[in-house]
Amino acid sequence: MNWNATHYQQQYSYIWQHGESLLAQLNPQVTEKILDLGCGTGQLAGQISASGAEVIGIDSDPNMIAQAQANYPHITFKVADAADFQLVEPVDAVFSNAALHWVTQAEDAARCVARSLKPNGRFVAELGGKGNVQTILTALETALETVSNLGEEMRDRPTLNPLTPPNNLNPWYFPSIGEYSSLLEKVGFEVVFAQLFDRPTPLGDAGLAGWLAMFSQRFFADLSAAQWAQIVSAVETAASELYQEGQWIADYRRLRIVAVKK
Ligand code: BEZ
Questions:
Q1: Nearest alpha carbon, ligand 1 atom 6
Q2: Of 90, 93, 141, 178, which is most buried with the most CB atoms under 10 A?
Q3: Measured distance CA(129)–CA(135) in Å, rounded
Q4: pTM strictly above 0.85
Q5: 217-262 pLDDT tens trace
Q6: Measured from the CB, is residue 215 less than 6 Å from ligand 1?
C-alpha cells in the first residue's frame, strides 16, 4: 500500500495527536525498549524516544518510513509487515496507534506482537473498533448502488465493491472487545484493559472528500476520475448527517486494549 506520506503528515496530524493519550497509557520508562508498530511518519515514536525509552518503529509503507526517518534521524525505523515480522531482540512493550485496522490478518499480527515481547511485556494498542466509520461505509455502499453509469459489470466486480458485507472483502478490521480479546488470549495474552468508545473526529479542510481520497480511493483504483467524483458526491449525500455546523465529522469508534504476554 503506497501512501503519500507528506500529505498524510500535513492533513492528518489528528491521527497521532489522538495517540498522545494512548502514550500516557503506555507510560514508557527510561530503561525500556519499545516497538511502535505501524509508526507512520514517526511522531509518536519521537515522543516515546523523548521520554528516554529506546524505540524502534516499523511500518509496511516505505514512504511512511522514509518520512519518519527524515523527521527523526536518531530513531531506528524499518519497513516491515505487521502480520509477518520478527525482531532481533524482544522488547518490553509494543505500542500501536491507528494502524492495526489496516491489517486484516489480525491473528498473524497478534502472534508477531506476542513473539516480539519479553515475558510480562505489554501490548498497548488503539485501532478502529466495531462500528467504526459505519455511516461512511454504509454511504459508500449506497453510493456504489446508486451511481448509475458505473455499469452492472463494474459494480459486480468484488475488487470494486470491497466494502459490502457480509464477505471477507472489507479492507479494514474493526473488531469488538470480545472478538479482539479472544484473539489476544488465543495467542498468549492476558487482556487487562479494553474500551470501545466513540470519537467523533472533525475532518478539517479536506472534508469527507479528502478523507475518501486518502483512505478509500485505493480500493477503487480502476475507476475514472469522473466516476470517482460521482461516488464522492453520492457518499456526501448519503452521509449528510456527518456534516455538522459547517464541517464534516467522521464517526470514528476506537478500541483501546492493554494486554500482557503470559
Ligand atoms: C480510522 O482511523 O479509523 C480509519 C482510517 C482510515 C480508514 C478507515 C478507518
A1: 215
A2: 93
A3: 14
A4: yes
A5: 888 877 888 889 999 999 999 999 999 999 999 999 999 999 999 9
A6: yes
